[in-house]
């Protein structure tokens, strides 16, 4: 994507604002944190996330659109989302407050921030061994569902660039088989605007689409095929749609420039 004038400056301003906002809120809540339960910490996190999304809109010009929210059923579900960017880690708690996220254990060791993740009920995945990682995921997810909470998982396990071949891990299928709740696939195109490991954030509109839920009880192979087909098909459509809009804007700008009077 072409870098627009001033874009690096805006990205730098956002990063500065984000770290100051995050550090300020982390220190502000410190006296109350020992007395907070998971719901209170998640509510505080939503305040942090709303501020972050506001900075993205006003500094970078990056907004988002949510589609298919009516497909998200009440009660505990597995939300299985495409993962292209850090952006989606700053989004899902805004639409599903009683949500816990499965994350690598190393994140819970970050001073203050990691402690707050633990208070919020995040599922810590011990990645030192395949079997140990799966057990920690399933145990944490079962406890969350018993509390009436939903679980967020990124089936590919890590961020992958837009258009990369899918690489789904077995954890999501094990989670689906163990929990007995619906799984809601999610497609998005965030990687077009905020690439993985990228300093730059591009202006535009990220689209997140909740897809038709997969009911519990299907055979493992059937579930995996359905999940991957729904996510990958919808994600390809969102990427093509965003590419078409950018092409229209570019063409309109070129056409507009053709009618400008020459400067003397």
Give a short synopsis of this structure.
With 264 residues, the protein is an alpha/beta fold. The protein has helices at 7-28, 38-60, 113-119, 130-146, 171-179, 220-258, and strands at 62-67, 78-81, 99-104, 123-125, 150-153, 183-188, 204-210.
Q: Which terms summarize this structure?
A:
7 strands, disordered C terminus, 14% strand, Glycerol-3-phosphate (1)-acyltransferase, globular, 264 residues, 6 helices, alpha/beta, 7-stranded mixed beta sheet
Could you characterize the architecture of this molecule?
The chain has 264 residues and is α/β, with parallel strands linked by helices. It has a single domain (7-253), classed as 3-Layer(aba) Sandwich (Glycerol-3-phosphate (1)-acyltransferase). Helices cover 44% and strands 14% of the residues. The chain contains 6 helices and 7 strands, in the order ααβββαβαβαββα. The protein has helices spanning 7-28, 38-60, 113-119, 130-146, 171-179, 220-258; strands at residues 62-67, 78-81, 99-104, 123-125, 150-153, 183-188, 204-210. α1 runs antiparallel to α2 and α4 (130-146) packs parallel to α5. The chain is globular. 31% of the residues are buried.
């Amino acid at each position: 994507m072409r870098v627009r004038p001033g874009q690096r400056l805006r990205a730098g301003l956002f990063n500065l604002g984000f770290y100051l906002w995050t550090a300020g809120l982390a220190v502000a809540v410190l006296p109350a944190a020992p007395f907070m339960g998971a719901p209170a910490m998640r509510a505080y996190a939503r305040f942090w996330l709303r501020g972050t999304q506001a900075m993205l809109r006003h500094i970078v010009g990056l907004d988002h659109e949510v589609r298919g929210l009516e497909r998200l059923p009440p009660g505990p579900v597995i939300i299985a989302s495409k993962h292209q960017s850090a952006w989606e880690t700053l989004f899902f708690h805004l639409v599903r407050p009683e949500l816990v996220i499965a994350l690598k254990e190393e994140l819970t060791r970050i001073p203050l921030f990691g402690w707050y993740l633990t208070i919020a009920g995040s599922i810590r995945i011990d990645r030192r061994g395949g079997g140990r990682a799966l057990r920690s995921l399933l145990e944490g997810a079962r406890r969350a569902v018993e509390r009436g909470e939903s679980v967020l998982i990124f089936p590919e396990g890590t961020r992958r660039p837009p258009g990369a071949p899918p690489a789904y891990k077995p954890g999501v299928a094990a989670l689906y088989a163990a929990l007995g709740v619906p799984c809601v696939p999610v497609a998005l195109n965030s990687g077009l605007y905020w690439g993985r490991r990228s300093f730059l954030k591009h202006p535009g509109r990220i689209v997140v689409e909740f897809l038709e839920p997969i009911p519990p009880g299907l055979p493992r192979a059937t579930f995996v095929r359905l999940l991957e087909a729904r996510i990958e098909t919808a994600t390809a459509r969102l990427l093509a749609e965003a590419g078409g809009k950018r092409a229209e804007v570019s063409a309109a700008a070129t056409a507009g420039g053709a009618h400008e009077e020459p400067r003397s």
